[in-house]
Write a structure and sequence with these properties.
The chain has helices at about 25-35, 40-45, 50-65, 80-105; strands at about 10, 20-25, 70, 75-80. It is mainly alpha-helical. The strands form two sheets. Strands 1-2 form a two-stranded antiparallel sheet. The protein has a two-stranded antiparallel ribbon with strand order 3-4. β3 and β4 (about 75-80) form a beta hairpin. The protein is elongated, with a radius of gyration of 17 Å. It starts with 9 loop residues before the first strand and ends in an 8-residue tail after the last helix. The mean pLDDT is about 90.
């Protein structure tokens, strides 16, 4: 038997009582914006209301203290350089944490003697 662990990381400003955080859902939404060129289209692709998508982005921006989207009027939105950097750092951290956790649980499924 082979076991694996999947870890969800959320990044938030502990000094405030803001709702939300920057995590896997926000990263997925931002990836959608990067691919679609629009928050509205990214939200629709994820089966999410546009208002919820905006709330997720605004809450993440509040925690991180940086804008994540730059609106292009009727043409949609694009990611800021800060958003791209946060996404890259998040993905890297996610891989490192999952590798560490999976190393720790290696052998859990083996018979105990």
């Amino acid at each position: 038997m082979t076991l694996s662990a999947h870890v969800r990381i959320t990044v938030k400003d502990d000094a405030s009582d803001l709702p939300g955080a920057f995590g896997a859902g926000c990263v997925a939404l931002l990836e959608g914006v990067e691919q679609e060129g629009s928050l509205n289209r990214a939200a629709k692709r994820m089966g999410m209301a546009y208002s919820k998508a905006w709330r997720i982005v605004r809450e993440a921006e509040a925690h991180l203290g940086s804008p994540l989207l730059a609106r292009n009027g009727a043409r949609g939105s694009e990611l800021t350089d800060e958003a791209k950097a946060y996404m890259q750092s998040y993905r890297s951290l996610q891989k490192k944490v999952e590798a560490l956790v999976n190393e720790e649980i290696r052998g859990w499924g083996a018979p105990r003697q």
